[in-house]
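Hello K.,

You asked for the raw outputs rather than the summary table, so here they are, unedited. I folded two proteins back to back in the same session to keep the settings identical. This is the first:
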Amino acid sequence: MALIKWRDSFSVGVEKFDKEHLKLVELINDMYIIVRDKGDVTALSACIERLIEYTRFHFSSEEAAMEEANYPGLEEHKKLHAGLEEQAVGFFLRVKSEGEAVRTEFYHFLREWLVNHMVEEDKKYSEYLKPS
């Protein structure tokens, strides 16, 4: 398990969303540090709440831009976002009830999902949202 390091390959070519993605990476890395240092569940829960709140903001921002650009994959992308949010909230509830047993699993899930989503799914909208 390691911190996520931003790579150029993560960029979607839209500065606003690259900055938001970088913020998500930072929040996931904050969570990693708490897990690595065996921080208490209260600190982890607060970190996860910030991550979920920012993720909701980011998804809303992305979806609004996709709608404005008439991105043809918007509905499918919204489903992916809704699925992540549902899974993240589920993990959050599990962390609150099961504590340490779930922390590493949740971190791995977030790391894989974020990187794969940015590199595979978000790149699909970049040609529609790049400034001309």
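The second followed immediately with the same parameters:
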Amino acid sequence: MADLNALDATALLQALDGRRISALELLDASVARAHQLKDRINAVVAEAVEPARRRARQIDERRANGENSATIGKLAGLPMTIKDCFDVDGMPASAGLKSFLDRPAGDAAAVGHARTEGAVIWGKTNVPVMAGDWQSYNDLYGATSNPWDIERTPGGSSGGAAAALATGITPLEIGSDIGGSLRIPASFCGVYAHKPTYGLVPLRGHVPPPPGIVAEPDLGVAGPMARSARDLRLLLSVLAGSVASKAAPMALAGVKVGLWLEEPAFILDADVRTVIEAFAADLASEGVAVEPIQSPVDGQHLLDTYRTLLMPIIAAGMPNRGTLEMMRGPAKLAMALGGKPDWARSVLAMTATHHEWMIANEARVKMGHGVRRLFDKYEVIIAPVAPITAFPHDHGPFNRRKLHCSDNRKIPYEAMVRWIALATACGLPATTIPIGLSNDGLPVGVQLIGPRGGDAKTLAVAEAIEDRLGGFRAPEMG
């Protein structure tokens, strides 16, 4: 057989059902790969290997008795790691905080779906504290590195998950996304991810919000991460039922896409733009109708609306609201001086009134109605995921961080949130796919944005692209 760690989940399941490999052998290969790369990558930060081995043996016994995935589960015998924001029975989600380690917790809803379908869950992957960064590091477990360049971040907050996928540690992961946490790590590490339509996959058992909160948070979603588009469909079918199989596979020729690369309030590095434009040309050569489109929304209005909706959710997990109130003074001053920095906008949004939230909610609904009309003409909208490729580790204060473009421009750290804001604010599905490497050899991804409820369509287009143009390539890790 080919290198086990290089196969996608679908191929591994076929090997399991054909009894060319056992679940126990597959688990041991995954654990060994994680240990091999621990010092360089640090993707897996907690393990429960012995219970996983017992489960793998049980599944092997059932297969030996003539059962297959049709009866013992869609993921039967497949080893999986889980992002350390989701509760796993016996391994509570730390979300990067030591204080969360000893609390009792059962499986998060999404994790329970995977376990019911036979997944062998054995490890947790690294995240930033409370999933609050586009880098994956914390004082509890340290930093995770990008397998394409260990001096750079794999992204966040699903950075450990993306790094584990790219290096063959795990064939599937469950990530979450409220500020690009599925899409940005996938783009930075060259893997696949799907941000579902809001509400499609339950977030119960995810931290944040803090443990004990049972209401589903606004904006946030859970979704699949994988090394192939077909595996995204497989895992989404487990997490959300039959929605992932509603659209039949399609031929790429004749697909109509809108290419969105222009928005005055957004930023796009020239190197990233070049990769995306070359990808668009490849699509056109395959018979895809690629049409550049103007921004479907006013970018600054979108960002202001999204910020007002997002920041109170983040602030709800902060223990000292008085600190936030103290921060309002400097933020108001900074705004009055005319610079209107992103950090000041965010601070003020954290303490938004309900009236301000209602205005923002109305604005996003109107934007959603406007964007919906685009899908009368296009199957998907292709857009950048991030303004740049994976950037060097930087764990300094947020308000002092800068991103560096290939032309030496310095841009705000919060520019990371701009291209992902539309799908999040409007609750739209967005499938992230790898499309090539930049001049410095780093992965570039795009998001295929679809209409609300159009998850099956974006996944079908992703599969068609993968079939014709290829997809995941592994970093050279040895």
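The chain has a mean pLDDT of 93.

Happy to rerun anything if the numbers look odd on your end.

Regards,
P.
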